[in-house]
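tool=predict chain=A
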Amino acid sequence: MIVVTSNWAIGDGTLAPAVEPSLGGLVAAVHRAVLRAGVRADGSYRPVDRLDVVLAGDTFDWLLSAEWLANHKPWHASAAARETLVRIAGSSTRLGWPVLRSLIHWARHGVNVPATRGGSWCVAVPTRVTILVGDRDREVERVCGNRWHSVSIGRCWDDGRVSIRHGHEADPVCSSCAADGSHQLDRPPTLAESVTVELLARFAAAIAPEGRSFMRRLAAAGVMEVPGVIRAWRASSAAAMSQRASDAWRRSVDAWWRTAQRCVPAVEAEFDAVGALAGWFRAAVEEDATTCPPAGLIPPAGLIRLVCRRARGSAGAVFGHLQGAGVPMSAVGLGRAVRAVGCRNPQGWPTWDVVAGAAVAAAVVTVQPSGVTMAGGDRVVDAA
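tool=predict ok
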C-alpha cells in the first residue's frame, strides 16, 4: 500500500500558523485506510504486507519567515544564511512534531492493525516513510538528512510502476537550474522565492497579527494565484480588507519591484516578468472587488506563459506540486480533487477514484490488492 501526501508547508510560525489544523486528521485517515485495505475482495481479512508513506514535496515551508526580512536570503551561500535556514528548519520541525512524530513512529515500529478480523491481537505493518524535496524546502536533504535515520529523503520515489516527485521543475516560476546546483556561490532567486520572501513576508509583517491565518492561505497559493486570493479576501464581508491592509499591500508590491530590479529572479521569459507581475499585483486592490468574481483575476496575456501547466505522463506518474491553491498537479487526472484512492489493475498500473474533499491539501492514496507483483522491483529514492 502506498500513501502519497504533499504540501504540508510546516513553517516556523513567525508570520503564519506553522501547521494546518487539518493535518492531524490526515494521520488518522491513513490509519483507517490501512485497516480498510486489509479487507480483501472476497470478504476475508488479511493485513497489508507493507506500507509506504511518501511526502511528495513541500513538507516544510522555509521561505515564509520573518527571519528572511533581514539581509540574509535563502539564495545566499553565506554562513549567516545557512545558520538562518537551520534556525527556521529547527523551529518548523519542533512546531510540526505533533504531526511528524506519528510518521516517525510508524517508520521505526510499523502501523499496528488487528491480526484477524475483530481480533484483539495486533501486528505491526512494516512502514517506510520517504520525504521528497519540494520548492519550499529545497534544502531538506542537507538540513534533515542526518536527523531522522528511519526516514529516507530524496527527489523521486519509484517502484517500477508508480513514479512520484514534487514536480516543481515543471512550474516556470519555481524552476531554476541554479536553485538545485552548487551551494558555493550566491544564486538568483526563483520568481516564487522572490515573491514569497521579498513580497509576501513583508506584507505579512505589515498586517500582523490580524492577518496571520490569511497569510497561510496566501502563501499556499501559487504566484499566479496571488491577485485572486487578495481580491477574494478584500471582497469577503467576513474578512474585509481594511484601508491599512490595502496600503500595506501597495507598499509591499512597490518594495518588491524595487528589490527585484537589483536582485533579478531567474525566470525564462522574453519580457519584464517582474514589472508585469507588479502591475497585476497592484490591480488586486486598485479596482472595485465587486466587478470581478472572487475566484481571481485573469492574468495579462504575457503572464499566461508563467502559468503552471498540468504535467503529462503515464497513469503511474504522480506530482505533489500545487497547481493553484490546494490543487495537486498530477498526471493521473485528479482535477481539483485533493485526495483519491487507487487500486492497481492486474498489470500493476493504478486506477484512481476521488474519495474526499478539500480538507487536506493534495493527498493521494493508492492501494495494492493481493496477488499483484511489481515488474520493476522494490522502490528507488533518487537523490540525484
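Residues 243-262 form the longest helix (20 residues). Residues 289-296, 323-344, 351-384 have pLDDT under 50 and may be disordered.
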